[in-house]
Fold:
Amino acid sequence: MNLGLTGKIALVTGGSRTIGYAIAERLGLEGAQVAICGRNEKRLEAARTKLESQGIVVLARVADVGSPGEVKALLEAIEQRFGGLDLLVNVPGGAVRPGSFSQVPPEEWRLGLEVNVLSVVSVSQFALPYLKARPWGRIVNLGAFYMAAGTPNLLTRFAENALAKNAVAVLTKVMADELAPNITVNCIAPGPVGEDHPMRPETASYPVPRVAAPEEIAALAAFLCSSHASYLTGLTIPLDGGLDRRVL
Structure:
């Protein structure tokens, strides 16, 4: 299937590692020009080299998406290099702090919201003028699967991260309502990803009894960014091997 991404310009935050890298790679192989950012210069440079070896046109820039000044400079650099922005994939990343509601101190809740939610707000707001200047745009946010039916223990084990990641789903709906119809906004809620994920043993009980590969997340993200997904917006899509058994 031709996704219609040839010549499109994409920004993938957190694009130097795991899910973010896989999404940047997939968009690039579909013909998009890709900007990636991250805080680790060495890792970012390695990702750029690997992407360019596949013929992908890449801009790699060190940036902390929690810093408005650095986000603004990042978007300006993309405008200068590529001439605009069509696709934004927000892959917020930070340490998951295990613990129940009563165990996690207030500063950790605050940090979780800053890293996982407010960074998405900041990058998306700075990107809006560029996205609105194009014929159509896409925003894809990365959440997580903590609200899957039948897994209440996750809320106890990862209270702070569950709150933050589910806030991303609500934020996605808020953004989608305002930005339709020309800019669609959707959220992917992955289950455990990668063979080294600490929850890997638990996936044995899932309908599809394994972890997801980063490339599977990337394939869905690429579709949501494509010209074929113009009637999908405001969705949070669980990509969790069938763990979530809700009908709607």
Q: What stands out?
A: Helices lie at 18-29, 41-52, 68-82, 106-132, 152-157, 159-179, 214-225. Residues 106-132 form the longest helix (27 residues).
